Amino acid sequence: MQEIHKRSTRVVDxxxxxxxxxxxxxxxxxxxxxxxxxxxxxxxxxxxxNAGAGIVRIALDNEKEVSALREIRAQCPGIVLSVDLQENxxxxxxxxPYVDKIRxxxxxxxxxxxxxxxxxxxxxxxxxxxxxxxAIRVGVNCGSIAxxxxxxxxxxxxxxxxxxxxxxxxxxxELGFTxxxxxxxxxxxxxxxxxxxxxxxxxxxxxxxxxVTEAGLxxxxxxxxxxxxxxxxxxxIGDTIRVxxxxxxxxxxxxxxxxxxxxxxxxxxxxxxxPDFGTGLNIIACPSCSRVENERFVELAxxxxxxxxxxxxxxxxxxxMGCRVNGPGETDDADLGLWCGPTTVNLKRKSxxxxxxxxxxxxxxxxxxxxxxxxxxxxxxxxx
Length: 384
Fold this sequence. Notes:
By secondary structure, this protein is an alpha/beta fold. It has helices at about 40-50, 65-75, 90-95, 120-130, 145-150, 155-175, 190-200, 220-235, 255-270, 295-305, 325-335, 360-384; strands spanning about 10-15, 15-20, 25-30, 55-60, 80-85, 100-105, 135-140, 180-185, 210, 240, 280-285, 315-320, 335-340, 345-350, 350-360. The strands form 3 sheets. Strands 3-4-5-6-7-8-9-10 form an 8-stranded parallel β-barrel, surrounded by 5 helices. β9 (about 210), α8 and β10 form a beta-alpha-beta unit. It starts with 10 loop residues before the first strand and ends with a helix.
């Protein structure tokens, strides 16, 4: 495959895999299985690796899952593993022996040990990384920006995103730790482009992990991802990529295949043109990762897409979120949001909760609310 011309960042070693510099862009993905289901997770790790994933990420929430990770590591020799620390950074030292990279979200560090400073928490993570020969990814997400940065930049989420990432780079610099990459993700591909452009200009030395979070169902999720990746990769920005699609578990490897297809097309100068994309209905849905609390979430996302097809010309956003990590933030920003739990779905209009419904009951109520929004938009348009 023809290689993409890249900007020259420093090189970060992840389990022997090189990210950054003039090394090829690494495609990675994330397991959608429950980490405690060892057999299913091992199968998926191999499924993703066999599709070409250079790094496979697994999410852990608590110490109870560490024993499962240890067994998964034993059954996946030679595969580069990353762990997502979720909201519990304190398990880093427990998982360190079994992975090659840890990803922490700056927006989640305040949840635990609130009396301890962010700087001290990052220092401890660096100590763990050094002890276990790990790389780190600083993963900043639009749905969970640290409260301090939202307060500093009210109404400017994009700047808050970039400044949060830059601050954590400065903390790592002060600690003399250079083995890190950064990601700045949003569900809006145009914000992803702008955030990464700004950060790359500010920190040209830092390798970037590209992703459009909660891109949603194919084909729209693929289009959103391409719109961001094409613009950034064509400018030499991006050292590793993850395509985040809402897919059934058995099709999760398609994220990797799409990633390679995008890289081939950019290298060959082939770009998509979708002039009207983003001007009508936008359905965002998180990828079916191990944080999903009910597998019916993926089916529900497809049902929402089918139900809302009649509203395609209206500029509205419907968010279908499958976990507690990004669910609250992403649904707060959507016109209508479905935050899916183990047995029920929280239906919201922006930050206002409209009620809790079973998976079987929520679609009729969603249609009522969608019709109400469309009527309000029509009245507003006529009044103006």
